[in-house]
Design goal:
By secondary structure, this protein is α/β, with parallel strands linked by helices. The protein contains 15 helices and 11 strands. Strand 5, helix 8 (about 170-180) and strand 6 form a beta-alpha-beta unit. Helix 2 runs parallel beside helix 3, helix 3 runs parallel beside helix 6 and helix 10 (about 225-235) crosses helix 15. It is an enzyme of class 1 (oxidoreductase).
Length: about 375
């Protein structure tokens, strides 16, 4: 046996059906060069020119191998106005809570003029511009973190020869995605970092596979950090895996992260040191549990606001927290697999181990079946 191969490998021109979501173009490029499919998260980009420059860099640094992009776009088009208009809907008590919490946690302010990074990327209009820019480059996949993209976006991607993937946390969501033209389902289990549903991947993956039928590829997601877990996902019927958290613990990610506080935080964390909460975006998402998440869980804390208001409320706070480098406060989406992230390694090493462990797991199962 040589590696992990399913029909998705031929469809996308990759060696292994390991899809890697990451906000870092350096990680995405390294995954693609190592035989997987790096998928760049676009939500951090506030303007089209910055994303255009980054995708140009990816075009030039993936050795001609394919990559994908991930956007955050609801199917229903909201009447959103400008970010300034939306900010006027944030209650003063929420602003006061954030300010007081940062004071109590000892988080210093950012230098004058900084603090808005990553806010506009959550708006529907910005997500549409992300798709427009991506279509001027050479991704092979557009993935949507909020389920089914608008129908016209799906049609535009198909016309350009791109496949469209969407995350699903329940079988009914997967069926809806397919009915609206989505090509690939990412069955994201409860264990996953970031936006995630309420069903664990051991149950969700086969339920989604059965719900969409044999002709629709499903990627298993949630808690995948070893080759054994890749093998388990494929055994449940998936044709590949969608990974995310494990790439936060790579040397290439340091090009984006820029602080050691995050490394200290995840290296010491166990699988029980995460929390699923609405405080990050307004929708349920799994984060590393820290003093910041604990503050929002206190009885006197206000309820999180709906998306995108919660993003606007906490964006500057998150930038301040991350810049401070305090591992006790750091705010970061991460899955329960964080307990396995006990070293910082190059992407190529992580990919090599995923494949080797997969092969070992399959050989062991073959031995059991033969016996």
């Amino acid at each position: 046996m040589t590696g992990v191969r399913t029909p998705l490998c031929d469809e996308f021109g990759i060696e292994h059906p390991i899809f890697a979501f990451t906000p870092s173009e350096h990680v995405a490029a390294a995954v693609s060069r190592a035989g997987g499919l790096g998928v760049l998260g676009c939500v951090r980009f506030n303007d089209a020119e910055e994303l255009d420059r980054t995708l140009t860099w990816l075009d030039e640094n993936t050795d001609g191998k394919p990559y994908g992009v991930d956007v955050v776009m609801p199917m229903k088009v909201p009447t959103e106005g400008t970010s300034a208009d939306l900010a006027s809907h944030i209650p003063e008590e929420h602003k006061a809570f954030v300010d007081e919490t940062l004071r109590k946690l000892g988080v210093p302010p950012l230098p004058e003029g900084e603090g808005r990074e990553g806010v506009l990327g959550w708006l529907h209009s910005m997500a549409r511009s992300h798709v427009d820019v991506a279509l001027q480059h050479r991704p092979v996949l557009i993935a949507n973190a909020l389920g089914t993209p608008p129908t016209d976006v799906i049609e535009e991607c198909h016309a350009a020869g791109l496949k469209v993937a969407a995350l699903a946390g329940a079988p009914k969501h997967a069926q809806s995605h397919i009915a609206n033209g989505v090509d690939i389902i990412v069955a994201q289990g409860y264990e996953a970092g970031g936006h995630t549903g309420e069903i664990a991947s051991m149950v969700l993956t086969p339920d989604v596979v059965d719900a969409v039928g044999p002709d629709v590829p499903v990627l298993g997601a949630g808690g995948i950090g070893s080759g054994r877990q890749v093998a388990a996902s494929l055994a449940l019927g998936a044709q590949g895996v969608w990974t995310g958290s494990i790439w936060l613990g790579t040397e290439e990610y340091r090009n984006l992260a820029g602080n050691r506080g995050w490394e200290t935080a995840f290296l010491r964390a166990s699988s029980s040191d995460t929390v699923r909460t609405r405080i990050y975006t307004g929708k349920p998402a799994r984060l590393l549990r820290t003093r910041w998440t604990d503050a929002w869980a206190a009885e006197d804390a206000p309820a999180p606001l709906p998306m995108p208001l919660q993003n606007l409320l906490v964006a500057e706070a998150h930038n301040r927290i991350n810049a401070s480098g305090d591992p006790d406060v750091i705010s970061m989406p991460v899955g329960q697999v964080v307990g396995r992230m006990n070293a910082v390694r190059p992407v190529a090493d992580v990919m090599r181990d995923l494949v080797a462990e997969f092969e070992e797991a399959v050989r062991r199962l073959d031995g059991i079946a033969a016996g």
